[in-house]
């Protein structure tokens, strides 16, 4: 059966809040953080909106100017979320946990895209490469955020950067869960971070026809709506501290939730499109739910959907719920919080895991905003526009990444 795994810390940086309380309150209130982009010129771009991080000061998380100057924003966001989560957990390597039993699984779907974009510009101006920063390579690599977090907290256990596109941080949490469950670690700092809402990122995703071209930012992200037109890019980070349950109890720390299941699968179908019959997506859900002891006679289930707002994803996701749960799919409470915080790429799974844990904790289902004209093909309870109360006993969150990477996590209240 393995060891039990608790969630003892959480941290977030996002367009709807840079701490857990603000993030959660805005989700419940249906606040949209998507806005017109003002951080750089967008006149020539096809897409001009996104979920940019706001009111963020790295100094609040103990990062000095030299560190900030050298690092890509994805590392800075990941560090800020990790500082929050570690402070929340109270773990200190060498004091209340063996440093070699503390792991770091901080992922990024894309890595240091802003650094790549900047340095490539220099290369085009001067092909000799003489002006390329000596920090370029160590700053842009996708494992940099995890490495910097491990350095900051003295975590000498396994340090992994799992890259599975939009599923990256869901897989990171799931693999951290398994590492603790199977005895390879006592705690893991896990989650994801990304900063892709820059000109080249917007152009790239727009040209592969994934993004909405909606001009009104507050109405742009419309998962499961009949008039949806694509997803909205967003930046940020989200980090959880997973800890062996008895280890957490012995410290007397607050346990936010228990990780009870994890499922993962691959569509083995297409580089960007989901498998149309939903069978592989359903499999990761049924595996996670079964491991968590799902019982349709007694469980009230919330699912934080991948819910990107693209036509193919939302229809296929609906099909997958029906394939996984049968008639019980119509009893699921489901919502896509991407309607408010946008698609945070490598960070999105961890942010949605936090939303799921908070839903379990408070018994409030956050809404899918902008769901005024539901797609007839998306006929499940997607919690349109207003939060609702429900006695949730099992929380699931699923992520489906480009390349067919699927993952699902299951949480229950601590007991």
Report on the architecture of this protein:
With 415 residues, the protein is of the alpha+beta class. The protein has 2 domains: 5-251, Thiolase/Chalcone synthase (Peroxisomal Thiolase, Chain A, domain 1); 262-410, 3-Layer(aba) Sandwich (Peroxisomal Thiolase, Chain A, domain 1). Helices cover 34% and strands 18% of the residues. The strands form 3 sheets. The chain has a 9-stranded mixed sheet with strand order 4-5-6-1-7-13-12-8-9, with helices on both faces. Helix 3 (73-89) runs parallel beside helix 6 and helix 11 (279-291) crosses helix 12. The longest helix is centred in the first third of the chain and has 17 residues, at 73-89. It starts with a strand and ends with a strand.
List keywords for this structure.
single chain; 415 residues; alpha+beta; Peroxisomal Thiolase, Chain A, domain 1; 2 domains; 9-stranded mixed β-sheet; two-stranded antiparallel sheet; 14 helices
Outline type: globular
How many DSSP helices?
14
Question: Which structural class is indicated by helix and strand composition?
Answer: alpha+beta
Major beta-sheet overview = 9 strands, mixed
- Binned strand content: 15-25%
Helix content: 25-40%
Radius of gyration based on Cα positions: 20 Å
Order of helices and strands: EHEEHHEHHHHEHHEHEHEHEHHEEEE
- CATH architecture descriptor text of the largest domain: 3-Layer(aba) Sandwich
Spatial arrangement of strands, main beta sheet? 4-5-6-1-7-13-12-8-9
Compute the separation of the termini in Å.
17 Å
Oligomer: single chain
What is the fold named in CATH at topology level of the largest domain? Peroxisomal Thiolase, Chain A, domain 1
Instruction: Write the CATH homologous superfamily of the largest domain.
Output: Thiolase/Chalcone synthase
**For the record, what CATH class of the largest domain applies?**
Alpha Beta
- Low-confidence segments, given as residue ranges, are none
């Amino acid at each position: 059966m393995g060891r039990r795994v608790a969630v003892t810390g959480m941290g977030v940086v996002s367009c709807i809040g840079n701490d857990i309380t603000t993030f959660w309150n805005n989700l419940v209130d249906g606040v949209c953080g998507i806005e017109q982009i003002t951080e750089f010129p967008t006149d020539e771009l096809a897409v001009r909106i996104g979920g940019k991080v706001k009111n963020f000061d790295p100094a609040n998380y103990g990062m000095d100017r030299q560190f900030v100057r050298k690092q890509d924003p994805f590392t800075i966001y990941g560090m800020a979320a990790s500082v929050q989560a570690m402070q929340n957990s109270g773990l200190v390597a060498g004091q209340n946990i063996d440093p070699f039993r503390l792991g770091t699984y901080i992922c990024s779907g894309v890595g240091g895209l802003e650094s790549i974009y900047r340095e490539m510009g220099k290369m085009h101006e001067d092909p000799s490469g003489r002006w390329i920063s000596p920090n370029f390579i160590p700053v842009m690599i996708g494992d940099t955020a995890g490495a910097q977090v491990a350095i900051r907290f003295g975590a000498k256990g396994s340090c992994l950067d799992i890259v599975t596109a939009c599923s990256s941080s869901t897989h990171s949490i799931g693999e951290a869960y398994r590492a603790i469950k199977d005895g390879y670690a006592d705690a893991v700092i896990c989650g994801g971070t990304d900063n892709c809402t820059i000109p080249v990122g917007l152009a790239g995703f727009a040209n592969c026809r994934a993004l909405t071209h909606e001009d009104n930012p507050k109405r742009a992200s419309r998962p499961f709506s009949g008039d949806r037109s694509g997803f909205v890019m967003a930046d940020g980070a989200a980090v959880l501290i997973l800890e062996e349950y008895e280890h957490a109890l012995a410290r007397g720390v607050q346990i936010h939730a228990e990780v009870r299941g994890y499922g993962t699968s691959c569509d083995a179908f297409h580089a960007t499109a989901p498998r149309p019959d939903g069978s592989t997506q359903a499999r990761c859900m049924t595996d996670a739910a079964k491991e968590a002891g799902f019982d349709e006679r007694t469980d009230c289930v919330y699912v934080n959907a991948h819910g990107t707002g693209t036509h193919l994803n939302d229809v296929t996701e609906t099909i997958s719920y029906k394939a996984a749960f049968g008639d019980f799919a119509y009893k699921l409470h489901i919502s896509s919080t991407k309607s408010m915080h946008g698609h945070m790429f490598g960070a999105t799974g961890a942010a949605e895991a936090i939303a799921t844990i908070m839903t379990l904790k408070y018994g409030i289902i956050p809404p899918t905003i902008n769901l005024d004209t539901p797609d007839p093909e998306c006929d499940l309870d997607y919690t349109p526009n207003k939060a609702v109360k429900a006695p949730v006993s099992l929380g699931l969150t699923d992520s489906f990444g480009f390349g067919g990477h699927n993952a699902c996590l299951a949480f229950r209240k601590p007991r």
